[in-house]
Amino acid sequence: MAFDIGSPQFGLADCKIALWTAAGTYSTAVDVMSVQLLGTNMDVVSAELTGDDQITAQASRAIAGTVTLRFGGISIAALEVLVGNTATSSIASPNNVKNLRINGGDNMPYIGLIGRAVAEEGSGDFLLYIPKARVMGNITIAQLEYGSFAIPSVELRAVHDASYGIINLITRETASTAALVLPPVNIPANA
Hints:
- The protein is mostly beta strands.
- The protein has one helix at residues 76-83, and strands at residues 9-22, 25-26, 30-31, 35-51, 54-71, 88-90, 97-99, 110-119, 125-140, 153-158, 168-172.
- The longest helix is centred in the middle third of the chain and has 8 residues, at 76-83.
C-alpha cells in the first residue's frame, strides 16, 4: 500500500507563529521552541429540517477552528506574539534582564501559525497552516515544578482569513529544510 505524499506524518519538526497584520500578511515569524503539539479541529454549524416524518434538508458549514499549541520551555519571544505585548529589556549582555508584562484588559492579537511534520514512510512533508487565530482560552504560561520542565500550552480560535481561509492542509512531494514562513510558499490565495 503506497502512502500519499507527505504521509504518514510522524512528530512535529517545526512551528512558527507571527502577528497577523492583514489578510495573508504577517510580521516576522518567531520559532516556537521545543514545540510538542500543534493541532486543530474544524468547528461547524449545522441544522436539519424535518417534516413529513423525515429529514427533508440538512445544512453544515465550516465556521472556525479550535487550535491547540504546546511547547517546551517558557519562550518570551513566542509569548510576545501570543499575547501581543513587547518585553522590555534592561542592561546589556551578559546581564540582560527581560520582562514581559501582561496587564488586565490586554487585548489578544490575531496571529498566524504553521507547523511541519515529515513523512515517515512516504516522501515529502506535511504543513498545517492556520492563517488567522486568536487566544480564546486560558494559557498555561508557567507551571514550575520540581523534576519537570515548564510546558506552556494555549488554545486559540481560528477564523476565516480573506486570503487563506480557516485551515490549510498542505502536502509537499519533496520535504523542505528551508525555514517555515507565513504564508507558506507556493500555495494559492482565495480568488
